[in-house]
Amino acid sequence: xxxxxxxxxxxxxxxxxxxxxxxxxxxxxxxxxxxxxxxxxxxxxxxxxxxxxxxxxxxxxxxxxxxxxxxxxxxxxxxxxxxxxxxxxxxxxxxxxxxxxxxxxxxxxxxxxxxxxxxxxxxxxxxxxxxxxxxxxxxxxxxxxxxxxxxxxxxxxxxxxxxxxxxxxxxxxxxxxxxxxxxxxxxxxxxxxxxxxxxxxxxxxxxxxxxxxxxxxxxxxxxxxxxxxxxxxxxxxxxxxxxxxxxxxxxxxxxxxxxxxxxxxxxxxxxxxxxxxxxxxxxxxxxxxxxx
Length: 292
Fold this sequence. Notes:
This protein has 292 residues and is an alpha/beta fold. It has helices at residues 18-31, 53-64, 118-123, 135-138, 157-165, 181-192, 204-211, 253-256, 276-291, and strands at 4-12, 35-41, 44-51, 73-79, 87-91, 111-113, 128-131, 141-143, 173-176, 198-201, 219-221, 223-224, 231-232, 242-243, 250-251. It has a 5-stranded mixed β-sheet with strand order 4-1-3-2-5, sandwiched between helices. Strands 6-10-9-7 form a 4-stranded parallel β-sheet. Strands 8-11 form a two-stranded antiparallel ribbon. Strand 12 (223-224) and strand 13 form a beta hairpin.
């Protein structure tokens, strides 16, 4: 088994003193050898961290010792190497940014659907299934028949609701995202807007890929993740998607085979945007790395 544990976590709770939590949490993570990225806000905590089994357990125990995070859930996968270069703990206005004041998943939210019951919703033609992630994530993989809002940022989701969903308040709507946080906030927003039959996948895609056997899965492709693994597949095994070092876009196997993909320099998405000066700089940097 790969030696490092990757823990994706979030929890909505009222944390008015969130800024005071940063330094003690940073100290615990650093002492435990845990790296990754965590966001703290008055509405809770969100992020992904990685480390040894002991290190991750230490950080989770520290968080859950705070009564406000006692019910915090997390999703785990494994990695052969630490998928983060450093530890970052940031203070934010929101732990997932929608930009709409007053949306509180701790107060009102959609109906949770367990991963093993999710396929029934996918098979129901009356249910509108929405992928609440951004376009570049959806490109890597998604559920059969799911609709993409084609957003570049979660801030665009309310506009999508007004443009595409208004008038369908009685229709059953099921939403999903990577780990559950975006669709949890999205369902809270829909409930606030008068939508009544709103569902979301508990634990997100990660929990689905962990619990549902591949033979029964309705998932196509891989799941984009926000660390150096880039994507995971069924059983949460590291996928074959790569990230372009020049522009950051995820690349499929087919795109990696393209003549327009030169690692560290350009890919099919950004090759046409490079100036001669930037291309020369990236090629020189690549040559320096290869030289050791």
